[in-house]
């Protein structure tokens, strides 16, 4: 029963909260949708912490795509052995994981250390930082310590297929039962964090302006017509 | 030809007394909310001085505006790809220390203090952290009237460019005021810097605005604007800027800074320009040609061809008439006495400045027996170095400044001759020839610059409400979003009348 809750019900509940929350905020709370920058208050610590964390998490995201989304058969087809894959995952993932955790810790210290920043830090901003540290910390432990000291865990045959099965609405929850505890904790914490996205600063990554390079540099809008076109 | 109308402003610096009334009324109107304390949509700087924020003209540091790279017009801070790569940290952005930490005073203490031996004082209190500030060290107009002296004046990037040494001795120094608002440029670099496309130029009047719903707070506009006139609201995490008081100009009223200007230095009017020529004008090779190139994009509102095209572009008759009576058109395009601020930024700014003259003429002591042409060398030996004015208003081209100053001097000489008499043949003088003017033009100028009647200073056609979607539907709604139902949201969806 517990397996059904954690690997079927819980992921769907959290993803539903995320999607509905995002839609609600997009439709009715545009005025509060922004990257909540405090660069204006403090630049020196941010200069190290922010790029370290953000680039780290982008690499980590790509790593998760490689491990969770791309099936193991894909690697086998190209003749990438398990040893080679895991060596790459531990080194590449380890670097990304350290970037994320170190960046986050710098950002957390910065948030507490500088009065101007601290004065305007909200519960949500502390929550998202600390939640990220927990999720990323577990991930770092798994990648760097667990994988090298206990066993190089083959998540591509358990967590990966389970994760993909969520999106075809046939969750293979039994696959998760044999997964080591730290991996389970990492997954559960991550899904809890997904649910928090619409209510915290994390929302800004859904509007990364990737269309910017494609648009005309100058923008004109008509006072009387733009709403008609836009809405 | 793609004709657009632009609402523009001229400031006559000779008349600015540096009273800051414009800044104060603007602040009371637009930026007295949390997060906006440090925002001065309008500010008045004492020059020479660093301005606001400190040394905003230092383009090597802030990288604002445009530059020519391999003959192509590019954002100096980098194009879209490099912006996306640097979105997590903006090296070139100014922070609060470049502006100031806003503070108030603990006035409560004056009332609530228990009886003490010494008078209670109201201590400065930060509006960011709420903590007491023992010693505020910088603030808006901290260096007003050269009060920063030789410590602060060298922070002015224009001073650093000057060959000549600027003396800070009381009897040798010079000073002028520079009131600044958003330039509402024809080629705005803030708009091009915005990854979200939240900044835009309004079709109807060319006002540059920030869509508060589309802004995501990426902050590239802050230093993308070389004039540093886009501010980051730390409370809402969105950008805000001068909006040319569009709710007032749409109703035919001047902006609040112009309305309350004590010296009547500000003029507002419409100009017509060809939007197709903007990019070409901003891309001329030599920065000193930018002023002339900018003038070439404007269209003569009396030309029948232009009127026909303007009508085709949907510009109404009262806007064309406004363009014909525009004081901005007269001063900037016809008489060429108003100059753009830092044309070398290649943004084609639309707030124009008539350079100050008064401190120059002060050292003519024998004005009674001075011949007309005796004023020419006086213009060349003026108190404010011509290079300094040129560095601000003409990309360093002193010839442009000299011509304007000669014209203003000619006006002064002629009008003095008319009322006091005793001046020799003005029409034939070298002064008139060098200034390239005539008594008729000069008299017209004196009327607009000197008499400056309200209706002549402000020629503002009203916004066209008849173009609105559905006036009947919007009746009774309120544009104060979050306080009242916003426009377009009503109780019955069928009321929209599509």
TrEMBL record, chain A:
Membrane-crossing segments per the record: 6-27, 48-70, 90-109, 121-146, 181-206
GO molecular function, one term: oxidoreductase activity
Annotated localization: Cell membrane
NarG-like domain mapped to chain residues: 4-223
Membrane topology, as annotated: Multi-pass membrane protein
InterPro entries for this protein: Heme-iron_electron_transfer, NarG-like_domain, NarG-like_sf, Nitrate_red_gam
Top enzyme category: oxidoreductase
PANTHER family attached to this UniProt entry: NITRATE REDUCTASE PRIVATE CHAPERONE, REDOX ENZYME MATURATION PROTEIN REMP FAMILY (PTHR30598), RESPIRATORY NITRATE REDUCTASE 1 GAMMA CHAIN (PTHR30598:SF3)
Protein's recorded name: Nitrate reductase gamma subunit
Assigned keywords, A-Z: Cell membrane, Electron transport, Heme, Iron, Membrane, Metal-binding, Nitrate assimilation, Oxidoreductase, Transmembrane, Transmembrane helix, Transport
Primary site of residence: membrane
Gene3D superfamilies reported for this sequence: Transmembrane di-heme cytochromes, Chain C
EC number of this enzyme: 1.7.99.4
SUPFAM superfamilies recorded: Respiratory nitrate reductase 1 gamma chain
């Amino acid at each position: 029963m517990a397996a059904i809750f954690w690997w079927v019900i819980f992921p769907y509940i959290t993803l539903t909260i995320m999607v509905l929350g995002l839609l609600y905020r997009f439709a009715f709370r545009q005025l509060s949708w922004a990257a909540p920058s405090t660069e204006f208050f403090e630049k020196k610590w941010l200069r190290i912490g922010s790029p370290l964390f953000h680039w780290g998490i982008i690499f980590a995201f790509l790593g998760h795509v490689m491990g969770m989304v791309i099936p193991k058969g894909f690697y086998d087809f190209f003749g990438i052995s398990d040893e080679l894959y895991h060596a790459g995952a531990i080194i590449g993932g380890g670097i990304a994981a350290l970037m994320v955790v170190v960046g986050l810790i710098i950002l957390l210290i910065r948030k507490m250390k500088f009065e101007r920043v601290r004065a305007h830090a909200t519960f949500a901003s502390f929550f998202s930082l600390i939640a990220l540290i927990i999720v990323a910390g577990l991930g770092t432990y798994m990648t760097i310590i667990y994988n090298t000291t206990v066993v190089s865990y083959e998540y591509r045959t358990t967590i990966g297929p389970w994760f993909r099965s969520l999106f075809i609405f046939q969750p293979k929850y039994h696959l998760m039962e044999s997964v080591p505890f730290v991996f389970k904790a990492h997954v559960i914490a991550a899904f809890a964090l997904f649910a928090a996205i619409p209510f915290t600063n994390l929302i800004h990554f859904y509007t990364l302006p990737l269309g910017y390079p494609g648009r005309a540099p100058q923008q004109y809008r008509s006072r009387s017509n733009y709403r008609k076109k836009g809405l | 030809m793609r004709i657009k109308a632009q609402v523009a402003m001229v400031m006559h610096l000779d008349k600015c007394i540096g009273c800051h009334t414009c800044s104060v009324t603007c602040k009371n109107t637009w930026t007295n909310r949390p997060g906006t304390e440090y925002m001065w949509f309008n500010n008045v700087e004492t020059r020479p001085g660093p301005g606001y924020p400190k040394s905003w003209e230092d383009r090597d540091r802030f990288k604002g505006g445009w530059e020519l790279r391999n003959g192509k017009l590019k954002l100096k801070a980098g194009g879209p790809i490099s912006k996306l790569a640097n979105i997590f940290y903006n090296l070139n952005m100014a922070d609060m220390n470049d502006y100031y930490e806003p503070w108030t005073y603990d006035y409560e203490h004056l009332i609530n203090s228990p009886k003490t031996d010494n008078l209670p004082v109201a201590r400065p209190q930060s509006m960011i952290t709420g903590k007491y500030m023992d010693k505020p060290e910088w603030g808006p107009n901290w260096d007003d009237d050269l009060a920063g002296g030789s410590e602060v004046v060298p922070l002015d990037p224009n001073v650093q460019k000057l060959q000549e040494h600027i003396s800070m001795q009381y009897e040798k120094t010079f000073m002028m005021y520079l009131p600044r608002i958003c330039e509402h440029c024809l080629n705005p670099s803030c708009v091009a810097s915005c990854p979200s496309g939240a900044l835009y130029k309004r079709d109807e009047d060319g006002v540059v605005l920030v869509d508060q719903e589309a802004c995501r707070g990426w902050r590239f506009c802050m230093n993308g604007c070389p004039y540093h006139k886009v501010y980051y609201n730390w409370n809402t995490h969105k950008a805000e800027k001068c909006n040319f008081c569009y709710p007032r100009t749409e109703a035919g009223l001047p902006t609040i800074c112009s309305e309350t200007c004590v010296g009547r230095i500000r003029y507002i009017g419409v100009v017509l320009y060809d939007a197709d020529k903007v990019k070409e004008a901003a891309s001329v090779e030599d920065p000193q040609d930018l002023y002339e190139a900018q003038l070439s994009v404007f269209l003569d509102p009396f030309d029948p061809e232009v009127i026909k095209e303007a009508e085709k572009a949907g510009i109404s008759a009262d806007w064309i008439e406004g363009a014909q009576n525009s004081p901005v058109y007269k001063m900037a395009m016809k008489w060429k006495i108003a100059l753009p601020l830092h044309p070398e930024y290649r943004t084609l700014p639309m707030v124009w400045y008539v350079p100050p003259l008064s401190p120059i003429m002060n050292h003519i002591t024998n004005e009674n027996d001075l011949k007309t042409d005796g004023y020419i060398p006086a213009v060349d030996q003026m108190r404010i170095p011509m290079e300094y004015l040129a560095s601000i208003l003409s990309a360093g081209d002193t010839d442009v400044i000299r011509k304007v100053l000669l014209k203003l001097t000619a006006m002064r000489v002629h009008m003095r001759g008319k009322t006091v008499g005793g001046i020799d043949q003005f029409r034939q003088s070298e002064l008139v020839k060098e200034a390239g003017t005539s008594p008729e033009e000069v008299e017209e100028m004196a009327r607009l610059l000197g008499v400056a009647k309200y209706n002549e200073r402000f020629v503002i056609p009203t916004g066209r409400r008849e173009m609105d979607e559905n006036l009947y539907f919007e009746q009774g709604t309120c544009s104060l979003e979050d306080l009242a139902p916003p426009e377009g949201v009503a109780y019955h969806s069928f009321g929209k009348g599509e």
